[in-house]
Fold each of these.
Amino acid sequence: MSSKPHICKSKPHVLVPPSPYAPRSSASGVQAEKPKQRTGRPKQTARAEPIPEPLWTRLPTSLNYHAAQERMNLREFLLRFSHLSEIARGHLEELEEVGSGTLGYPDPEKECSSVSESRLATWISEPALKGIFVGLLTILSRDSELDGEVQVITKAIQGIKAAGVNLNKIWAALAALRENSSVVLPDPLPRPASITRLGTSSVALAQDASHSIVLYTAQLVPAVSALTDRMLQTKMVREDFDRAAAQEKDLSRAARELTAEENKRWKVLFDAKDGTRDSRRATRTAHKDALTAIEHAHKVAMTECLPRFAPLGRDADGRVYFVLSPGMIEREAAVDLLEGGRGEVKWGKRRGIADEAQRKRMRYWSWHLAVWGRKPKGAHVAKVARGEDAEDDEESEGWWGFWEPTEVAKLSEWLAAQYGIEIETKNASKDAEGVPIDEATKVHPTAAQDSEGKARGRPSNASSTADTSAEASSSRIRTFASLNRESSHDDHEDVRTSDSDDGDDSLYSRVDSRGQPVPRRQDLIALVWRLREYADLLNWRIKRASKESKEGAEKAEGSDKGKAVRKEEAIPTQTFYGK
């Protein structure tokens, strides 16, 4: 029986549609690539602007903090009350050179006081010191509270006038005044031990232990300081603060009237719309410069009404920032401008003092910013000139100067970046007001991307005007701030600290382990803004007072005569102002 062959029944072929989720294959069996998804442009991250690095330059002085502050206080006091003392302008101008030379070394076996320095720095000339003593004693002789001592004071004035420029005779007259009146005068600073050559009269005095040998005017700085402190108690000085308040109102009113007149003149020119595009641009520039001149002239003129002298502020590293007010010539020019005059700065024999070569030397302290303390780690330091001592010690305190307005502006931006301050916003955040800046929370310029910086100690021993340390309490330097406890308001009152107490210690909410005051955030914001304003003011003063700026303006004005102004070329500011 034959078996039937087995027939395989194949399953029917069913067409299955391809899954939309499965990758398609090409005819060759190669898997096709996935379609690329369209993506937009990547978001551009804002590049962090580089933090400016100001140039730190050593000031050419051997003075320590207390000695330099004492001389700055004397300069500001004598300029503030120069109309009462009738001291010659030439003598007052010498006070601007706080101390750049060195007069040997004192006796190393004697301990230096807190207001003296290991090296005695030069000061003013003998005729200038003589004129200052005569002026101060003249005010004391007119005080009603010293009626019983007028004869003694008058005799001292006559003795100083008859002494010529002999400092020993001048001190002898002052010593007699100290013995026969209630006027308290400290002994002169010791002369440098390296000075061994003495005159015949000095040798005779050296043999008398009761007499001090005075060879340099710098030795009599404490005596001048004591007389200024005594002047603060006179009725004449107290009444002058009321006069200054009235003068302040007059100057402010004059500035407002000039500003209104300039705005009115500009509105007429703007509505007329005459001239070419370049001429309208030049007119607009002149209008802005006119408003700037009125603003800065008002600030300079207001220095005659200062109720006090104090530093700009201090940062969290303990550095203290000082600026001196403009001199008498600039003040008179500023008042003349507010009164409707040209406000021309006439230097006379001192022409060229505002030029770059003079400012770079930093001998005249009203033309630069002075900073006391340690320089920041990694900071750019100016090269030391040949013949000067180079101090590379990172931990040493000293005086630093910024004589270029651009460097002062960089310093302001550097501080703002270091402490996370927005310069463009004038108002401090409410939650940050009154909060001290700790070293662990500030942003360091070397690590701007980090949220926290490394903690660093506060090295400075200096305070704004009075120290809280035990050493400073025994040698506190008084200023003419003690007679007026109200500070003037300014444009940035909302971010500035109130200067309502005698010392600046009250401006800070607490002190560190070394007894140094710690600035609050609002104090740092105020310091940043004050530095910016000083940079603008210094730049304006240089343009008006510098011989180089004037000659450049005259050259530019002469070359443009009879020529059309090129397109996209602005007329120099000096063409309109500062001639």
Note: The longest strand covers residues 369-373.
Amino acid sequence: MDKGKKNRSRSLHGRKFVFDWDVGEDTSRDQNKHEVQFFGRGLTAGVDVNAQKKSRSTFYKDEKRRTEKETEKGDRLAHELNKQRRCDERHWRDKPLNEMTERDWRIFREDFNITIKGGPVPKPLRSWDEAGIPNEIYKAILKVGYKDPTPIQRQAIPIGLQNRDIIGVAETGSGKTCAFLIPLLSWITSLPKMERQEDKDEGPYAIILAPTRELAQQIEVETKKVGELLDINTLAIIGGASKEDQGMKLRMGVEVVIATPGRLLDVLENRYLMLNQCSYVILDEADRMLDLGFEADVKKILEYLPMSNMKPDTDDTENEEILMKNFQSREKYRQTVMFTATMSPAIERLARLFETTSCCTYWFYRTPG
């Protein structure tokens, strides 16, 4: 090799390499589509979702393809839908009970100025024939002359019939007496009459406390109107009457005792009366009772009540089925009903005396004038 001879550089023929090409030279453009193609109706892959749904609906609605059973089902659903639309346009007074909606019940409570507070509250009463009370009590109510339920009666009675405690806030003359009497008498009449006669020495099934003698007498009159028709004995224990005479009547046996706190405590301390089977405690006009200084007497009266019928601190006390079953038995849980015209801290303190469980639910009703 000639060392003096120089290496010649490679010639590129004077041309520069071109990396781009003409679109017309791309033969794979239509073979492998990387982008979504739009065609037909203008949607992806030519599929119109709305048109598909419409076609599917048309397919199932085709009378030729529907069986006789499917046709009857469709007609029935259409009838129910039209019926529901017509019901929604009617006032709650024009509807049967089974067609009432939540909106109807809300309007119902607004019409009667009923305000509620608490857990699962049962539906209020629209009329006496929808109350679900025993037939003998229903007849007694009509015979006494009770017409339409008052607002406090409409909501308090269904809750009382569920074996639940109640605090009712209502004005005087709003029908409170009947509101607590109907559930009370419903329970007593459910007990065998023979057992009621055999257990008369154990004391009454219920006590009703009133702040004054006059109010106790009024409650006695109203209670006897219905109680005598049901063969239920009632006695008022008030001042101004002989304790010996009252003791004699108590020994003969009474199911319901109406009393002022002071006189009832005196009778209990002198052994004229026992409360061994008392499962119903009612306080009427509790605010006046506190104003008259009866709070200490009420606390002492509670000590005479049996502990065996207190509601257990379990979830069973919130189970409606268990409460209803217990309500229809002799071993009924103690039930407390309190009515007041005002809801003051003193009333709340008194209400806590009757609490039987940590999750006890109280109900509030207000019927403003």
Note: Confidence is low (pLDDT under 50) at residues 356-369.
